Automatic annotation (TrEMBL):
<feature type="binding site" description="axial binding residue">
    <location>
        <position position="453"/>
    </location>
    <ligand>
        <name>heme</name>
    </ligand>
</feature>
<dbReference type="InterPro" id="IPR001128">
    <property type="entry name" value="Cyt_P450"/>
</dbReference>
<dbReference type="GO" id="GO:0005506">
    <property type="term" value="F:iron ion binding"/>
</dbReference>
<dbReference type="GO" id="GO:0016705">
    <property type="term" value="F:oxidoreductase activity, acting on paired donors, with incorporation or reduction of molecular oxygen"/>
</dbReference>
<dbReference type="GO" id="GO:0020037">
    <property type="term" value="F:heme binding"/>
</dbReference>
<keyword id="KW-0560">Oxidoreductase</keyword>
<keyword id="KW-0349">Heme</keyword>
<dbReference type="GO" id="GO:0004497">
    <property type="term" value="F:monooxygenase activity"/>
</dbReference>
<dbReference type="Pfam" id="PF00067">
    <property type="entry name" value="p450"/>
</dbReference>
<keyword id="KW-0472">Membrane</keyword>
<comment type="similarity">
    <text>Belongs to the cytochrome P450 family.</text>
</comment>
<feature type="transmembrane region" description="Helical">
    <location>
        <begin position="6"/>
        <end position="26"/>
    </location>
</feature>
<keyword id="KW-0503">Monooxygenase</keyword>
<keyword id="KW-0812">Transmembrane</keyword>
<keyword id="KW-0408">Iron</keyword>
<keyword id="KW-1133">Transmembrane helix</keyword>
<dbReference type="InterPro" id="IPR036396">
    <property type="entry name" value="Cyt_P450_sf"/>
</dbReference>
Length: 512
């Protein structure tokens, strides 16, 4: 008995010595770093190894982060696995990262899945911001691929696909899955604008793209535990499916490029109007053939990466936003009535919707679209940024290597910035000088600074055409006399903040 007690005493003594040694070591480490990092942002208590991952399990990330920010503040530091992660939930904090210190936060963290599909960052979204090819591609987007002139040149595509949407609703009615039909329209608009009217690989590419978006909607263990051999083993096995999808989508993209090159062989270089009429892939191949842009050659990987960005971001986000806009209009019959009145007055006597008829004339519809972006940003956590040098944000020290998420969903619902922030009130934008340019940090559907989305004008034009067509041609109600106030508005987990349930409505054809 005495021997057992002695053994226990020795074990307890050794345990106490170990704990004291750990505490002393931590204090010394903190003291050594005190001169560099005086004040880290607040955050919840972290668990060993996994950090704060348990606080996000089973939850929609931007919602869980918003709840945590209410307790810990708009500048909050989390640890996801081994990765320090800064979450910003106010306009002031977003402004510091995307304007005041934009250069220090302009890079992207390297995620295993995204790295595969973007050919190691050969695209616009994930390339290093100081690389020559990123600057060249960004300039190409601004001047050619997504310029106002080029967006206007796709009017015919938008009008034809909107007319096809109307026919699909009329043929399938009266009860229709509006969400599915809007996804088809946006996919076809982006596909035709990107690779032309006739693309033999259309269906195969879109099928693989759905798999890509699913794969990119979560983290890989390699991303969260980069130094762990076990995580690399588990994550490596999981990446096997990613590489298989990449091989298939790469093969499809190669076929698209080959088909376009063949079609361009007999092209008349003196056709001055061809450059404006061409799809994005044709334009990219012309620049590649002519030596690149700004002295930077365009590789096939660059071209594939840019097209991947357009497909992945251009169709899913616009479809999601349009579906949410229809959902909010259904929940607010008086706003629906006001918007339909505007559309039908502008298109009085017209049997088809054309952009020439509605261009600049649907002021209330634009407020509806902005209010939808505010309440339902399609990407509620902007694509992550990487802190490349120690920086102060709102008085807090941000260590180099920190991943940064801007929670635009929380910013759009911030009561300090918006009156009745959780209410759908389009008229709040009446007289407000709020646009999509990333200058008002209360409203950031496309981000701001060096990394803001270059395709916002293209996306908004697609949304406007789809909504105007649906509201002009049909009257809408919930099936079986459903109560609009009880329409399910919950979100699903994914790369975009989609509806959890399908939007199924009853359409009645409106005869002007």
């Amino acid at each position: 008995m005495a021997e057992t007690q002695h053994t226990q005493l020795v074990c307890y003594t050794l345990l106490c010595i170990l704990l004291v040694a750990i505490v002393v070591k931590l204090k010394l480490k903190l003291r050594r770093g005190a001169g560099r990092l005086n004040q880290l942002p607040p955050g919840p208590w972290a668990l060993p190894v996994i950090g704060h991952m348990h606080l996000l399990l089973g939850a929609i990330p931007h919602q869980a982060m918003h709840r945590l920010a209410r307790r810990h503040g708009p500048v909050m530091l989390l640890r996801l696995g081994h990765v320090p992660t800064l979450v910003l939930s106010s306009a002031e904090a977003a402004r510091e990262v995307m304007k005041v210190h934009d250069a220090a936060f302009a890079d992207r963290p390297v995620y295993a899945t995204a790295n595969i599909f973007t050919y190691g960052g050969e695209d616009i979204s994930f390339a290093r911001h100081d690389s020559r090819h990123w600057k060249a591609l960004r300039k190409l987007c601004a001047v050619e691929l997504l310029s106002p002139r080029r967006v206007r040149s796709f009017r015919r595509v938008r009008e034809e696909e909107a007319a096809r949407l109307v026919r699909s609703v009329a043929d399938a009615g009266p009860v229709v899955n509006v969400g599915d039909m809007l996804k088809v329209m946006m996919n076809d608009v982006v596909m035709r604008a990107s690779v032309g009217d006739r693309c033999a690989q259309r269906d195969a590419y879109l099928e693989e793209l759905d798999r890509v978006l699913d794969l990119m909607s979560g983290f890989n263990f390699i991303d969260l535990f980069p130094a762990s051999r076990l995580a690399r083993a588990i994550g490596g096995r999981a990446l096997g499916a990613t590489w298989e999808v990449h091989r298939r989508i790469h093969s499809i993209m190669d076929a698209m490029i080959s088909d376009h090159r063949t079609a361009m062989e007999g092209e008349d270089d003196n056709d001055a109007g061809r450059e404006q009429r061409g799809d994005v892939l044709t334009t990219l191949l012309r620049f590649q053939r002519d030596g690149g842009i700004g002295g930077v050659a365009l590789t096939n990987e660059n071209i594939s990466g840019v097209l991947f960005d357009l497909f992945a971001a251009g169709s899913e986000t616009t479809a999601t936003t349009t579906i949410w806009a229809m959902s909010e209009l259904m929940r607010s019959p008086h706003i629906m009535a006001a918007e339909q009145s505007e559309v039908r007055q502008v298109l009085h006597g017209k049997t088809e919707v054309t952009e020439a008829d509605i261009d600049g004339r649907l002021h209330y519809l634009h407020m509806v679209i902005k209010e939808t972006f505010r309440l339902h940003p399609p990407v509620p956590l902007l694509m992550p940024r990487l802190c490349t040098e120690q920086t102060k944000v709102m008085g807090y020290d941000i260590p180099e290597g920190t991943t940064v998420f801007v929670n635009v969903s929380a910013i759009g619902r911030d009561e300090k910035s918006w009156t009745d922030a959780n209410e759908f009130t389009p008229k709040r934008f009446d007289g407000e000088k709020v646009d999509y340019g990333g200058t008002d940090f209360r409203f950031l559907p496309g981000g701001a600074g060096r990394r803001m989305c270059p395709g916002m004008m293209f996306g908004v034009s697609n949304i406007e055409m789809a909504l105007a067509s649906l509201l002009h041609h049909f009257d809408w109600k919930l099936p079986d006399g459903g109560n609009p106030e009880k329409l399910d508005m919950s979100e699903a987990y994914g790369i975009t903040a989609r509806r959890r349930t399908e939007l199924v409505l009853e359409a009645t054809v409106f005869v002007p």
